[in-house]
Amino acid sequence: MTSPHAARKAVVLLSGGLDSATALAVARAEGFQTYALTLDYGQRHRAEIEAAAHVAQALGAAEHKVVPVGLDRLGGSALTDAIDVPKGRDVAEMAKGIPVTYVPARNTVFLSIALAYAEAVGANDIFIGANVLDYSGYPDCRPEYLAAFEKMAALATKAGVEGTPIRIHAPLIRMTKAEIIKRGMELGVDYGLTRSCYDPDAGGRACGRCDACLLRKKGFEEAGVGDPMTTLGS
């Protein structure tokens, strides 16, 4: 662990999935004291909320908050509404357009709450596990979006007006799933604690066929390692 930022705080958006867990590990490795933030937005894959708590504890977060945000009351996504989650799609199909699992304006809502949390705890940095590779197709994971949000944050916050603008970090933005997994393993992430499935059963077991499950499987195969979540049968 490096020391230059040892006294600095960072808010990390933590879903309980593979990418956000790695982002938390990266923030810790860079010497930040981490404040994990999980949003309970009415998602059908609620197993990830419990997973986030385990990840936050395992990676030594100073604090972990779960904040309810009722995006399910708005609908418009297979993750929050009575819309079927796509299953069995190949990579070419995933690469076509914005998937129905896109939650309208989710990252804008999430980052806004992270911004409020950062000001409340005196953090000048926010980490998010956004990624533009592996065919996610989400418009609010693009580098230009994150840069624009950072500019807005400088105008909209007390911290920004007083000359200490809050920075948005997306350390995984151009990494493949395999590269993310390898980096996380270097940093001691226990991926057996994470959950990725968009449509788990009532016991939280992954369906194995949604886009998130298939991309996770592809990532571990390309990294040349076994998925500990699969090994654990959950």
Give the key terms.
globular; Rossmann fold; 234 residues; 5-stranded parallel β-sheet; alpha/beta; 5 strands
Q: What would you note in describing this structure?
A:
The chain has one domain (9-231): Rossmann fold (3-Layer(aba) Sandwich), CATH 3.40.50. The longest helix is centred in the middle third of the chain and has 16 residues, at 106-121. It is built from 9 helices and 5 strands. The chain is globular, with a radius of gyration of 17 Å. By secondary structure, it is of the alpha/beta class. It has a 5-stranded parallel β-sheet with strand order 3-2-1-4-5, with helices on both faces. The protein has helices at residues 18-29, 47-58, 91-94, 106-121, 143-156, 158-161, 177-186, 211-223, 228-231; strands at 9-13, 33-40, 63-68, 125-127, 167-169.
Show the helix and strand layout.
Layout: E1 9-13, H1 18-29, E2 33-40, H2 47-58, E3 63-68, H3 91-94, H4 106-121, E4 125-127, H5 143-156, H6 158-161, E5 167-169, H7 177-186, H8 211-223, H9 228-231
